[in-house]
Amino acid sequence: MRVLLLLPFLPAMLAEFGALAVRRPPQPPRRPVVHRPRHAAPPRRQAREIPRIPDYAAFAATAEAHSARWETTYEYSSSSPYRARNRVTGHVVAVSDLNLLDHILATYEPPHPVRGYYGQQTRGRMRTYLDGGR
User: Fold this and answer.
1) Which single residue of 80, 108, 109, 122 could bond 94 by disulfide (Cβ 3.0 to 4.6 Å)?
2) What is the DSSP string of the chain?
3) What is the rounded CA–CA span in Å between residue 69 and residue 105?
4) What is the pLDDT of residues 34-55, one digit of tens each?
């Protein structure tokens, strides 16, 4: 009911509010907005070119073929860059040619674990416990 009583005054009220909206004090000028991305900056370029392994496909195939016994790496600043370390004995092989490395790794046989002790050999025969160590 009260709303109906205010209907005749509605146009005057709207005009008054509209006039208030126009009479706002002027805002100070805004400074220009500097756009700053929210994500991290991209990584900087490398100062030098990253060296690559020559014929990487063949190197990877050789390393995979012998990976059960050998850990194969590439040393960039070496005269013999192809290196392999035996996982059991720790022996290291270093060569400058990949085909040679593949051949060495394929034909390498570790020394037999059972060896005679130094000083047990006398005049070409091995001392045994059966003959009393003579």
Assistant:
1) 80
2) -HHHHHGGGHHHHHHHHHHHHHTPPPPPPPPPPPP--SSPPPPPPPSSPPP--TTHHHHHHHHHHTTTTEEEEE-TTSSS-EEEEETTT--EEEES-HHHHHHHHHH--PPPS--PPTT-EETTEE--TTTTT-
3) 9
4) 776 667 676 677 677 778 899 9
